[in-house]
Request: fold
Amino acid sequence: MAVEEALERLLALAEAAPIKGSESVALADAQGRVLAREVVAELDLPPWPNSAMDGYALRLADWQGEPLPVSQRIFAGHAPASMQPGTCARIFTGAPLPEGADCVEMQENTEVLQTGQVRFLEPLKPGQNVRPQGQEARVGEQVMAAGTRLGPIQLGLAATLGHARLEVVRKVRVAVLSTGDELVEPGQPLGPGQIYNSNRRLLASWLQRLGCEVVDVGILADDLQRTRQCLAGLGDVDLILSSGGVSVGEADYLGMALREAGELALWKLAIKPGKPLTFGHFRGVPVIGLPGNPASTLVTFALLTRPYLLRRQGVAQVAALRFNVPAGFDWPKPGGRREYLRARIEDGQARIYKNQSSGVLRSAAWAEGLVEVREGTTLRQGDIVSFIPFSELLD
Ligand code: AMP
Ligand code: MG
Reply:
């Protein structure tokens, strides 16, 4: 199955299971959340015309170029008097324009005469250095649509509009489970044949960044009975996300248990790293089974699970931005699967980590993103490739 097809299917499944319910949260708690309701301007932004400069405000209509006396000083945060004819007003950045004024000249283009009058040294135009009322938004205008993800910039905008709280989609509850008898938690001694569980931390931390609530189930032993018990004991979650145990190996107990109680499809993805991926339902709860090799877990989470989770919250724009960059490497052998190479941008070129094995998470820790190499292609240094920065994928 091509990556696009898998993504399309997952997004359709996500749309069929939207997260229902929302809550009102303070801006300080809204980071990473998704708007459940549009944000509408309840005031003009800015609410009144104001000065974009430190300088002098005047009314051009009744000015012939002569020096003008200063009739008032207007600081930001203070209400001005109306413009007195035949004068100018000292004004500072962000201060409201006095009624009747239509132009601000920056102080650098003026000269204050001995008399205290101000001479304007350059030609003036109506509206110059004035931020008009409502230039950013008009009362009643939708400023952010439902489905908008809230980061620092969106939260800043909500604050500009005076919103103290926002209605956001309830957090997605994701049960994270790692499968494998070989897994041991960091901090514990390693026995023979054992390795440390990296996917649990990787997935749980990533999910938290995405604004999800993690239900950390820990390690699931390769044992059918215990797998059944674990699944049965899961509380109310929106997604069961597992890693490992989805290859066609004999230790696929999660797959067995899921097939008994629901349905499960094994997708053989044309993606490297990360060929096997499962999708199914357990008692109506969607299940995504990611492959266990850490780099495979990472790539399939980034490219498939992340957009799925965002779409379930109603986010329209789920694709990560990508950029065209010249390859800083040769790729002589065409692959049968689409490859996502862990890469870094150096001197404007994408350089790839020397070991691209799916078991090597260090490749990704070294990298700044993923280079996409389409199936069946070869590359020479300098050829253009698509690069997806991790910064796009992590939030
Ligand atoms: P599996 O799909 O269970 O056969 O796992 C594929 C590979 O990924 C094996 O080498 C596993 O040891 C490894 N693996 C599976 N789960 C984890 C995990 N949580 N942390 C680190 N490596 C894992
Ligand atoms: Mg396993």
Remarks:
- The first strand starts at residue 22 and ends at 26.
- The pocket of magnesium ion (ligand 2) is lined by residues 179-180, 244-245, 251, 292 (CB under 6 Å).
- The radius of gyration is 29 Å.
- The CA atoms of residues 93 and 157 lie 20 Å apart.
